[in-house]
Write a structure and sequence with these properties.
Order of helices and strands of chain B: HHHEHEHEHEHEHEEEEHEEEEE
CATH class of chain B: Alpha Beta
Shape of chain A: globular
Shape of chain B: globular
Number of helices of chain B: 9
Strand content of chain A: 15-25%
Number of helices of chain A: 7
Oligomer: heterodimer
CATH topology of chain B: Rossmann fold
Order of helices and strands of chain A: HHHEHEHEEHEEEEHEEEE
CATH class of one domain in chain A: Alpha Beta
Largest sheet of chain A: 7 strands, mixed
CATH architecture of one domain in chain A: 3-Layer(aba) Sandwich
Number of strands of chain B: 14
Distance between the termini of chain A: 34 Å
CATH superfamily of chain B: Vaccinia Virus protein VP39
Helix content of chain A: 25-40%
Helix content of chain B: 25-40%
Structural class of chain B: alpha/beta
Chain lengths: 276, 286
């Protein structure tokens, strides 16, 4: 059963697919010509675990650009997203770039995935703005552990929980806090028109429910599900996607805090291995 | 290997901790008299998370043990303990306390720089290695720290630490308000210690500790967890809490369990920000 939060978020994401396919941020035309949509962070850290034939499960794959980028590097990928529009677009893209033989797309809420998907994977991957849509990380961790082969790798690259705390009106001189680190399961309700990839878009479905998750909230369920911590990394840079006016984009395409290129964390990555 | 703590930092921090020891011995916060009368100095979280692993005869190595009250509180619960601290006055007080409460047969105290622990412990292994509240901020190099932890853990032994949350370290008072905002420095910079004048102590903000400043280092979870996993430990848990066993500012609020909270601005306790954490990890099996 879709609950209220899921319904609202799904309506927002179904609408976002149409906007994102044409958005410069996603550069679908470039992707079709061969551009890799993955950032240097996940390429450097997860790339060495992805070989010809690696079975990779991509949770919250949106319309499949990253899933297909891993497929181009040899992986046999399964992309999962709760948005039917996202999955339909992903399948069409896979056809168009000739990867449908090594890319399967499944429409499902991540937390219900064990009901609809069979099989085990070498790698479970999720990234960039995915975790805030998951209200129950206990179940999420169980799903990840369920689909990993013994010895398999879970990897996530994400926006940093500290960055999610900053107030909308935070300034470089006063980084005020506007959002909670601990939410005790209760989501933040947002009702804002526009889209992160197209801020001026006249969107219809503007109510969303989001959860910021602290490190313990992310890490502990995974540990309890039988995964072993390989590393947690924190970076003073991120892919483009955070809304603060005091960020700047470097020649490497990553955002950093102006005047503080080394000391304020904007993203993190986590790699874990299933015991086996 | 050379000591990663610069000489000036070591000297300043030693002076400070000796001065703090004199303050703490008489402070209500440390309540030495209460301890002598039998009260535990451990906070409820430590007893809850580590207590079940401490039995009669459990061997426990307490790094940066200050004046030994926590070390001796574990000894009272049955552990055979070794405490190590930089401050000669703190170790002197720890030994006096051990004598006074009749625990000197199961408590040994070593006065040494943390990074020299190997020299003084001579390969001894412990069931538990404990790093208590607020300690790693005095250390520039966590890889070597984690190496010391790993080398003194018995096979399958337990490492436990609790501390000030890295995010809380990066909080500042908003001037004129009982509110906080984020400072920029939240990621480690081993070559750039925070050098600060010290006024008073967390246990007694009016205490006269003028003179010695402190040298501290910023640490992040990636660095702490990376050091532990790099030394071969397996992380069992990371927990985060919205309260702290010691106050950061005098306008924080103490609850009945002796925990300190930020005010929420409406007469209540602010529960949305992480102020402390604990980590438990296990050493490699034999």
């Amino acid at each position: 059963m879709l609950d209220e939060y899921l319904k609202a978020n799904l309506a927002s994401w179904d609408e976002a697919v149409g906007l994102h396919v044409g958005a410069q941020m996603y550069d679908v035309e470039g992707f079709k010509k061969g551009r890799c949509s993955l950032s240097d962070i996940e390429l450097r850290e997860l790339g060495p675990s992805v070989h010809e034939g690696t079975m990779l499960l991509h949770l919250q794959c949106h319309f499949g650009l990253d899933s297909l980028s891993w497929a181009r590097r040899g992986a046999v990928v399964t992309g999962v997203d709760f948005s039917g529009a996202g999955i339909a677009t992903a399948r069409a893209l896979a056809d168009e770039v000739g990867l449908s033989a090594r890319a399967t797309f499944v429409q499902s809420d991540v937390l219900a995935l064990t009901d609809v998907l069979q099989g085990l994977f070498d790698v479970v991957f999720t990234s960039w703005g995915a975790l805030i849509w998951i209200g129950d990380l206990e179940r999420w961790a169980e799903v990840i552990a369920h689909f990993l082969k013994p010895g398999g790798t879970f990897y996530v690259a994400e926006f940093h929980p500290y960055a999610y705390l900053l107030a909308d009106d935070a300034t470089p001189d006063s980084l005020r806090i506007g959002y909670p680190y601990f939410q005790y399961g209760r989501p933040q309700r947002f009702d804002e028109p526009g889209d992160y990839a197209d801020p001026g878009a006249r969107t219809q479905h503007n109510v969303t429910f989001e959860w910021n998750h602290g490190f313990a909230e992310i890490l502990d369920p995974l540990l309890r599900s039988g995964l072993r911590l390989e590393f947690l990394h924190e970076f003073p840079h991120t892919i483009i996607g955070l809304p603060f006016s005091f960020l700047e984009v470097g020649v490497d395409g990553l955002q950093r805090v102006k005047g503080h290129h080394e000391d304020f964390p904007l993203s993190f990555s986590l790699k874990m291995t299933k015991e086996g | 290997m050379s000591d990663p703590i610069p000489a000036a930092a070591r000297a300043a921090n030693l002076r400070l901790w000796n001065a703090w020891t004199r303050v703490h011995e008489k402070s209500a916060f440390y309540d030495v008299e209460g301890f002598k009368a039998g009260a535990t100095s451990l906070w409820a979280l430590q007893l809850e998370e580590l207590g079940p692993l401490v039995h009669e005869g459990t061997t426990l190595f307490h790094l940066q043990c200050h004046c030994g009250m926590d070390t001796l509180s574990w000894a009272r619960l049955g552990a055979d303990v070794v405490g190590l601290d930089l401050s000669d006055e703190a170790i002197g007080l720890a030994r006096r306390l051990a004598d006074e409460v009749g625990l000197s047969r199961r408590a040994e105290f070593v006065c040494a720089d943390l990074y020299d622990a190997d020299v003084h412990l001579d390969g001894r292994l412990f069931d538990i290695v404990l790093v208590g509240w607020g300690n790693i901020e005095w250390l520039p190099d966590l890889e070597r720290w984690a190496g010391i932890v790993a080398r003194h853990l018995a096979p399958g032994g337990t490492f436990y630490t609790d501390g000030i949350h890295p995010f809380a370290h990066g909080l500042d008072e908003v001037p004129g308000e009982h509110d906080v905002r984020v400072k920029y420095r939240l990621l480690p910079a081993p070559e750039q210690p925070d050098v600060e004048p010290v006024e008073g102590s967390s246990a007694d903000s009016g205490a006269d500790t003028t003179g010695p400043g402190s040298y501290g280092w910023v640490h992040s979870f990636s660095e702490i967890l990376g050091a532990l996993t790099g030394a071969g430990l397996r992380v069992e848990h990371l927990h985060e809490f919205p309260a702290s066993p010691a106050p950061f500012w005098d306008w924080m609020i103490r609850d009945e369990a002796r925990l300190w909270w930020l005010p929420d601005g409406a007469g209540g306790l602010r529960r949305d920000l992480p102020l402390s954490y604990s980590i438990r990890a296990t050493g490699p099996a034999a």
